[in-house]
Amino acid sequence: MTQLEELLADWIPRQRWFAGKGAPIETVTVQAEHPLVCGDPGLRVLVVEVGQRDSVSRYQVLLGLRPAGTLREELAHAAIGVCRLGGLSRTVYDAAHDPELTALLLDRLAAADGVEADAIGGPAPSGTPAPVRFRRLDGNDVHAGQRSLVLRGEQSNTSLVYGEDYVLKSFRRLWPGLNPDLELTAALAGSPYVARPYAWIETDVSQDGRPVPTTLAMLQEYMRSATDGWVLAATSVRDLYDAPGLAPADAGGDFAGEAERLGAATAAVHRALARELPTDVLSSHALRELARSMLDRLRQATAEVPELQPYVGVLRSAYEALAEVDEPLPIQRVHGDYHLGQVVRTDAGWVLLDFEGEPAAPVEERRRPSSPLRDVAGMLRSFDYAARYQLVGSSAAPELAPAARAWAQRNRDAFSAGYAYGGGVDPEKHQTVLRAFEYDKAVYEVLYEAHNRPSWLRIPLDSIAALAA
Ligand SMILES: Nc1ncnc2c1ncn2[C@@H]1O[C@H](COP(=O)(O)OP(=O)(O)O)[C@@H](O)[C@H]1O
Ligand SMILES: O=P(O)(O)O[C@H]1O[C@H](CO)[C@@H](O[C@H]2O[C@H](CO)[C@@H](O)[C@H](O)[C@H]2O)[C@H](O)[C@H]1O
């Protein structure tokens, strides 16, 4: 490994967005290095391959460079290290945190020629395509010259907010090809339930020796009046816990009205996705395959988290019941990783974000049509999370557990009612399918928490225990 690769091997596993936390890093290779600014400070886009056990994954790093020892104090937290590059000793750092450098990304997007939406996912422009291409959707002017701030919070990617207008979401884990977040956001452009897409950045990533145009980042409208759905739900739960003995409807801060509106917004987005993108019906063979993939996930999770063992029988029966469903199961493009942190409430209503699907799954899998009930199940799980997470490690957990259950039930019911009322299928009438998706999501969460937030592992484990009771 080069000196830079050694530094990256030490830095990458400490990043929130690193998806391979379950196993040590064995190799780090800079697969591509594209200079965007040559000078001081310098800016490069790196595509970095990380080898772990028998898997290799790719990540994007926006690398800032300054002469060694000149990194300003406020950027110290972004430092990756000091190494020799081009014969000079340089401090290299995560340029996402340096507004002097990130301003250039917005400027380049603003200056790009407008293209039609069908250029998204299409081949690179003819001629000699630039290694990093800045592309703007026609009719969407972008105002340059704004400084960015990194959005804080639990993120699988890194989002920069420019002024009060735009969010540039820089995808960290790269899968060759079109990122589903850009694809679906663009397909839904004009919907009141998504943030308007403006532009994107792409590069060619080599796959089997072929260059594949690959999304690096997406620029979309910043919903400035937005409050995160998770934060709103958590506040409602807190209000309930502060009002011992009261029912969720009477405690103040009741969330059920919002949950119902969220259900209706979700149904509207599903209907729009079904209009804009291909739909199908799952064959009985494909249904069995789906059940088998759930079982595979369960096996993997049980091997890593043996506490799942007592529930394997119940979970397996739910997947077997799914495999036996004998009614046609309509499928279409869906969100794929739907939860309260993926929706924001603006003064006009709910807006859905982050159509990337499960961050750790291969992109072909994430782009595959699925049942919209999968998203419904994801959000139902999220109500359970919101109700339970404040009890983790709390001595008041035993007294508050009934209130947690009541809050989750009330909001799950309201969401499902809103979903049916908003034109989606009635979740109540598809319990076998819904239950299998919900179990599968909970098993996914067991793995997710084991790798990312071990102190929250009890949340999905307790939910599985309750579901299986
Ligand atoms: N366009 C936007 N407007 C307002 N807030 C946003 C926007 N995009 C993202 N956010 C905020 O950032 C958080 C993380 O964004 P998300 O797209 O889900 O990133 P990730 O894929 O990294 O998890 C969201 O929960 C939301 O609070
Ligand atoms: O938002 P991401 O695309 O990064 O999704 C991943 O991280 C989520 C946590 O940030 C995780 O969601 C789980 O925790 C949420 C609370 O933090 C909860 O609302 C969700 O229901 C629960 O699944 C998500 O699963 C993961 O893919």
Describe the structure.
The protein folds into three domains: 3-15 and 24-95, no CATH class; 100-221, no CATH class; 227-468, Aminoglycoside 3'-phosphotransferase, Chain: A, domain 2 (Alpha-Beta Complex). 37% of the residues lie in helices and 24% in strands. The chain is globular. The strands form four sheets. It has a seven-stranded mixed β-sheet with strand order 6-7-12-13-10-9-8. Strands 1, 2, 3, 4, 5 and 11 form a six-stranded antiparallel β-sheet that branches. It is of the alpha+beta class and 469 residues long. A hairpin with a 2-residue loop joins strand 12 and strand 13. The chain starts with a helix and ends with a helix. Bound molecules: adenosine-5'-diphosphate and the ligand O=P(O)(O)O[C@H]1O[C@H](CO)[C@@H](O[C@H]2O[C@H](CO)[C@@H](O)[C@H](O)[C@H]2O)[C@H](O)[C@H]1O.
Main features:
469 residues; alpha+beta; 3 domains; six-stranded antiparallel sheet; 37% helix; globular; binds adenosine-5'-diphosphate; binds the ligand O=P(O)(O)O[C@H]1O[C@H](CO)[C@@H](O[C@H]2O[C@H](CO)[C@@H](O)[C@H](O)[C@H]2O)[C@H](O)[C@H]1O; glycogen metabolism; Mak_N_cap; kinase activity; ATP-binding
